[in-house]
Amino acid sequence: MDLPQKISLREVGPRDGLQNEDPVPTDAKVALLDRLSVTGVKRIEAVSFVRPDAIPQMADADEVWKRAAKAPDIRYSALVPNLRGAIRAMDAGFTELEAVVSASETHNRKNVNRSTGQSLDEIAEIIAMAHERDATVQVIVSTAWGCPYEGDVPVERTVSVVGRAITDGADSTSFGDTTGMATPARVRALVGAFRAKYPEQNLNLHFHNTRGTGLANVLAALELGVSDFDASVGGLGGCPYAPGATGNIATEELVHMVEDMGVDTGIDLEAMIDAAADAERIIGRTLPSQVLRAGPRTRTIPA
Ligand code: ZN
After folding, report:
1. Helix, strand, or coil here: 68?
2. In angstroms, what is the span from residue 16 Cα to ligand 1's centroid?
3. How many Cβ atoms from other residues are within 10 Å of residue 274's Cβ?
């Protein structure tokens, strides 16, 4: 097995995580961001610039970002749903934007009331405008492995959606397993097809552990040489389509597994576990992370 020596994790708890939990106070969001900024993680998805009436969890994005201690060596990104959001994000100082489109037509329509083609048209405009202002855009293809309305999404469909974004100048791309439908075999199929067509394109992967395959999918992707992954502290952020189910894979679980395999994440595991304990206190519910419960594998108890 030839795994990458080093990978880059993007911590998505402050945005993807908190957006899928009950709203928490601004102070708590700032505290979580600052806590994560001292764990060694080098990429953080900080906020999203969405309509406050649509997503109250992110209504204070400007305020959170203003008050957060921004570490100079961390790349912070903001998710933007449209051109207006992109302008807000860049006005707030972000130079890394994320734009999302669903591979599944039905999921895209349910989410943003538009076809994937219409979303891709607007993403092309976001990319053009971001580039004028020296910002970059990562295009995230959600429901890349499956859709809660349509079921399996064919590999060709996901590759064609991401292909349009690449043609339009996306600086990087990401596949999101929105409802945890991926398995290692499906990871190999999609990443293989993507790599065959776009060998030079940077690829980030975003797995959910909804059906228990999250870390297995990470391992399958590592074996294919993928080195950029999303994860959420404590596993923050449930599954919006299955109440009570798990969503994001937990950052400390990913770090715990891969570091023992000789893959460097740059993250201090103990610091990330502490941040997960904080996240759990902030959110007021038990988070799904098993490493948060059990501690690192080398933890001992008095004999
Ligand atoms: Zn997620």
Report:
1. coil
2. 6
3. 17
Please give the structure tokens belonging to residue 256. 């715990």
- Look up 147 and say whether it is catalytic: no
pTM of the model: 0.97
Q: Which residue has the tokens 């740059």?
A: 266
pLDDT confidence of residue 1: 66
Of 218, 213, 241, the closest CA to residue 231 belongs to 218
Residue 238 has pLDDT above 90, yes or no: no
Residue pair 141/162 in contact by the 8 Å Cβ criterion: yes
- Residues around ion ligand 1, judged by CB within 5 A, are 16, 248
What is the DSSP-derived secondary structure letter of residue 249? P
CB count in 10 Å sphere of residue 185: 10
**Which candidate in 46, 127, 239, 283 is catalytic?**
239
Percentage of the chain lying above the pLDDT 70 cut: 100
Please report the sign of the dihedral spanned by the C-alpha atoms of residue 121, residue 49, residue 88, residue 233: negative
Nearest to 296 by CA among 270, 264, 278, 277: 270
13/32 Cα distance (integer angstroms): 9
Query: Sign of the C-alpha dihedral, residues 287, 234, 103, 128?
Result: positive
Compute, in angstroms, the gap from residue 261 CA to the centroid of ligand 1: 24
Domains in the chain, please, with CATH? 8-294 (3.20.20.70)
Measured between its terminal Cα atoms, the distance across the chain in Å is 37
The chain-wide mean pLDDT, for the chain, equals 97
Q: What are the two backbone dihedrals, phi and then psi, of residue 228, each rounded to the nearest 5 degrees?
A: -120, 125
**Nearest residue to 187 (alpha-carbon basis) of 151, 225, 149, 160:** 225
Sign of CA dihedral 243, 206, 98, 96: positive
